[in-house]
Amino acid sequence: MNIRPRRNRRTAAIRGMVRETHMTTDNLIYPLFLVDGKGVKDEIKSLPGNFRWSLDKLLPEVEECMELGLRNFVMFPAVPEELKDKTATYSYAADNFYLKAAQTFKEKFPESTLISDVAMDPYSSDGHDGLVENGRILNDETLPILAKMSVAQAQAGFDVIAPSDMMDGRIGAIREALDEAGYTETAIMSYTAKYASAFYGPFRDALDSAPKAGDKKTYQMDPANRMEGLREAMLDEEEGADYMMVKPALNYLDVIALLKEHTTLPIAAYHVSGECAMLIAACQNGWLDFEQAMPETLLSIRRAGADVILTYFAKQYARVVQGLEIGL
Ligand code: PBG
After folding, report:
1. Which residues are tagged catalytic?
2. Within a domain: residue 64?
3. Which of 14, 124, 248, 258 has the fewest CB atoms within 10 Å of its CB?
4. Domain that holds residue 38
5. Residue 161 CA, distance from chain mean position
6. CATH assignment of the domain containing 133
7. Residue 2: inside a domain
8. pLDDT tens for the 328 residues of the chain, in order
9. Which residues of 275-292 are buried (b: 16+ CB within 10 A; e: fewer)?
């Protein structure tokens, strides 16, 4: 035998030297759920270790993350039912607690990256990402609402706007509206290949944002499709996206790899709530070891081609990197 691959695995130093994939906290985005009010830190039952925070409680948590080297955050609002309506007007209302919180957040942490989600569902009385009429999700009528929401978010100080709605033409419509309002530096992270997945459950629990009727299959992609992801990618690139996202991540690693091969844009992958919940459940049962299974999971997503990963494990990963304890 003159070829023995095991020679390159012999010591930790050698393994480190030939390692192909590296990941630091720079590659992670931490999702945060915000509620109005004060003194709230309310655990999401289907996503243990994650909370709905009021801003006063959230800011110290963010400070802790920043000290751990975690600088990128995406924030989602849990909007009270009575503020929701058919056209998601609260999403750009002047007294919107989420927009006001973003302002405070960026004043306190100017060196952070703050990302917002754009879609109607957290603000919609129908619980859909677009405007609903007679059970149909209207495309073109939704675009101006998304554009208005995006401009309000840019104005509030979000660095990156992330449309998750999957309407056709929304990246172009949002880019145009942002530019017209003077926000040429606000970037767009498009949820490019977002699938109609069964793995968003805990997120919808957190925001109480599940569709009141029907499902999201007429706008989110069919889990059976790969090439359609590439078609969406080509459109997003033409329309001016700055990042492309694949969502979920683990069940769609092939799509991440496909998009990475066909674009020069950075690729983000959303390791979604249900994917994280599965691992937490197995570890809580003592069936898997979290300190080992969690970093391996994130590394796999990165190896597939993701430049950045949105994950509920971001803070725990940052602690592992620093050799700190992570309880479950
Ligand atoms: C809103 C949105 C969803 C997620 C991110 N943005 C839910 C959905 O599309 O129903 C899911 C994220 C997760 O499960 O962690 N459009």
Report:
1. 194, 247
2. yes
3. 14
4. 21-321
5. 11
6. 3.20.20.70
7. no
8. 999 999 999 999 999 999 999 999 999 999 999 999 999 999 999 999 999 999 999 999 999 999 999 999 999 999 999 999 999 999 999 999 999 999 999 999 999 999 999 999 999 999 999 999 999 999 999 999 999 999 999 999 999 999 999 999 999 999 999 999 999 999 999 999 999 999 999 999 999 889 999 999 999 999 999 999 999 999 999 999 999 999 999 999 999 999 999 999 999 999 999 999 999 999 999 999 999 999 999 999 999 999 999 999 999 999 999 999 887 7
9. bbbebbeebeeeebebee
Question: Is the link from the previous residue into 248 a cis peptide, with omega within 30 of 0?
Answer: yes
153, 161 contact by CB (below 8 A)? yes
Atom of ligand 1 nearest to the CA of 164: 16
| 13 located within any domain | no
Residue 200 Cα to ligand 1 middle (Å):
6
Q: Do the domain assignments include residue 3?
A: no
**Which residues in 92-232 belong to E strands, given as ranges?**
113-118, 131-133, 136-138, 160-163, 187-194
Ligand 1 pocket test, candidate residues 34, 44, 153, 203, most atoms within 8 A of CB: 203
Residues in contact with ligand 1 (CB, 6 Å cut-off): 117, 119, 121, 129, 164, 200, 203-204, 272-273
What is the position in ligand 1's atom list of the atom closest to the CA of 199?
Answer: 14
The answer to pTM > 0.85 is yes
For ligand 1, atom 10, the nearest C-alpha belongs to 200
Domain count, the chain: 1
